[in-house]
Design brief:
37% strand; 15% helix; alpha+beta; single chain; 8 strands; six-stranded antiparallel sheet; two-stranded antiparallel ribbon; 162 residues
Length: 162
C-alpha cells in the first residue's frame, strides 16, 4: 500500500508593519486607536513554545481588533517577550547553596530587534491603504519610525502564525 504524505504550507497572506517606539504597548495601541479609528483591545498573550535552546515558553503582549464590515483583522504584537524569571542554584566557597533569580527576555522576530511592536493586517487591504496607514502611523507622537516588512524573507516567520 502506498503512503501519502500531506505537507502543509502556512499562509503568510498579511501585511506586517514594524513599529519602533519607547512607549508602553497600551500607549501605542491607544494612539493607533485614536488615529486609525479602530478599537484594539488586549487579548491573551501570544505563547511561543520553547525549543532546544529555551525550555520554557515565551509570552508576547497582544492586542486585536476585528473590522467585520471590511473583513480586516488588526493585531499589535510586542517584539520583546514578557520577562521570564529563572532561579539558579549557585555553589559558594563553603558549599552553601545560594539561589539567584534572573530575568530573561526574548524577541518574537530576532531579525528586527530594533522594532518594539509589529502591526499586522489580515484580510484584503489595498497597497494604497497600506501606504496611508504607514504614513498615519509614522505621524504618531509615540512612534519613532515604522516600516513595512516582507514576511516571506524572515527566518522566524513561523512565530507570526497564530
Amino acid at each position: 500500500m502506498a503512503k501519502h504524505l500531506l505537507t502543509l504550507e502556512p499562509d503568510f497572506d498579511f501585511v506586517l508593519i514594524g513599529i519602533s517606539s519607547h512607549a508602553k504597548d497600551y500607549r501605542v495601541c491607544w494612539a493607533l486607536n485614536n488615529t486609525l479609528n479602530i478599537e484594539l483591545k488586549k487579548i491573551e498573550s501570544l505563547e511561543i513554545k520553547g525549543n532546544k535552546k529555551r525550555s520554557t515558553p515565551s509570552f508576547f503582549s497582544a492586542f486585536e481588533f476585528e473590522d467585520a464590515d471590511n473583513f480586516i483583522e488588526y493585531f499589535v504584537l510586542a517584539n520583546l517577550s514578557e520577562g521570564k524569571t529563572y532561579t539558579a542554584k549557585i555553589n559558594s566557597l563553603f558549599d552553601e547553596e545560594d539561589a539567584k533569580e534572573s530575568r530573561e527576555n526574548e524577541f518574537l522576530i530576532p531579525e528586527y530587534k530594533h522594532m518594539n511592536y509589529f502591526f499586522i493586517l489580515k484580510g484584503e487591504v489595498s497597497d494604497n491603504r497600506v501606504d496611508d496607514l504607514l504614513a498615519q502611523i509614522k505621524e504618531l507622537d509615540v512612534v519613532l519610525t515604522a516600516i513595512i516588512i516582507d514576511v516571506t524573507s524572515l527566518k522566524s516567520k513561523q512565530n507570526l502564525i497564530f
